[in-house]
């Protein structure tokens, strides 16, 4: 009777050990469950616009959020913060960045040099992080283009003025022609009446 009892304890020990291992693995997976959602991965803007780099994350704890900017000119850290605390904004972006608890940031009055890759890293604890990228294209309004549009509009206005003048001249000529024709018809009618009176 004793040997089967020992075998039963061993089996129960293995089962409990396996259950504890599964629970530990599930706990590790839950603690590393940082997810990040980026609704718009590419943004096109013009100079002086305010741009929202929108993201959303989910995790079990309070993460550290960090944004960096990589462009043709340099790579620099923009801001780092934990939701609910004051953000540590770099000197280059001091008065131009607003942070939000969902991880999003807003850039005010963007310029051409703000074009590039914006990388967000959400870290719950060492070894548990997620990152994403948003590409920003900033184009400037060229004064040459505005000059071309202004010249084109002036040219179209001049052409319209010439056409209106021609239409007015044509209208006056047509009116004078009709008036002369009526006068001639009236004269010819009067002559015919006079001839008829003479014949009578």
Keywords:
Immunoglobulin-like; 3-stranded antiparallel sheet; 200 residues; rod-shaped; 2 helices; alpha+beta; 6-stranded mixed sheet; CD2/SLAM_rcpt; disordered N terminus
| Secondary structure tally, helices | 2
Shape: rod-shaped
Kindly report how far apart the N and C termini lie. 161 Å
The CATH homologous superfamily of the largest domain corresponds to: Immunoglobulins
Strand content: 25-35%
State the major sheet.
Answer: 6 strands, mixed
| Strand segment count | 11
Q: Give Rg in angstroms.
A: 42 Å
Provide the number of structural domains: 3
Q: Return residue spans where pLDDT drops below 50 for at least 5 consecutive residues.
A: 1-6, 19-31
What is the succession of H and E elements?
HEEEEEEEEEEEH
Secondary-structure arrangement, i.e. CATH architecture of the largest domain: Sandwich
Specify the helix fraction band.
Answer: 40-55%
- Quickly name the level 1 CATH class of the largest domain: Mainly Beta
Strand order of the largest sheet: 2-11-10-5-6-7
**Helix/sheet category:** alpha+beta
| Overall mean pLDDT | 81
Explain how this protein is built.
- With 200 residues, the protein is an alpha+beta fold.
- 44% of the residues lie in helices and 29% in strands.
- It has 3 domains: 1-31; 34-141, Immunoglobulin-like (Sandwich); 142-192.
- The protein has 2 helices and 11 strands; from the N terminus they run αβββββββββββα.
- A 6-stranded mixed beta sheet has the order 2-11-10-5-6-7, with no helix packed on it.
- Mean pLDDT is 81; it is low at 1-6 and 19-31.
- The longest helix has 57 residues, at 143-199.
- This is V-set and transmembrane domain-containing protein 5.
- InterPro entries: CD2/SLAM_rcpt, Ig-like_dom_sf, Ig-like_fold, Ig_sub, Ig_V-set.
């Amino acid at each position: 009777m004793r040997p089967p009892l020992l075998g039963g304890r061993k089996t129960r020990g293995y089962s409990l050990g396996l259950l504890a291992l599964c629970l530990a693995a599930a706990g590790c997976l839950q603690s590393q469950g940082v997810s990040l959602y980026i609704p718009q991965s590419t943004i096109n803007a013009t100079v002086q616009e305010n741009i929202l780099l929108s993201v959303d994350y989910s995790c079990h704890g309070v993460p550290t959020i960090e944004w960096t900017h990589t462009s043709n000119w340099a790579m620099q850290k923009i801001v780092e913060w934990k939701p609910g605390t004051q953000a540590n904004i770099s000197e280059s972006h001091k008065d131009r960045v607003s942070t939000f608890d969902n991880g999003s940031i807003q850039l005010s009055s963007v310029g051409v040099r703000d074009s590039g890759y914006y990388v967000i890293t959400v870290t719950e604890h060492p070894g548990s992080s997620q990152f994403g990228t948003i590409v920003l294209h900033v184009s400037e309004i060229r004064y040459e283009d505005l000059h071309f549009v202004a010249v084109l509009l002036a040219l179209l206005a001049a052409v319209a003025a010439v056409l209106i003048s021609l239409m007015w001249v044509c209208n006056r000529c047509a009116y004078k022609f009709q008036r002369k024709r009526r006068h001639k018809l009236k004269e010819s009618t009067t002559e015919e009446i006079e001839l008829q009176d003479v014949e009578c």
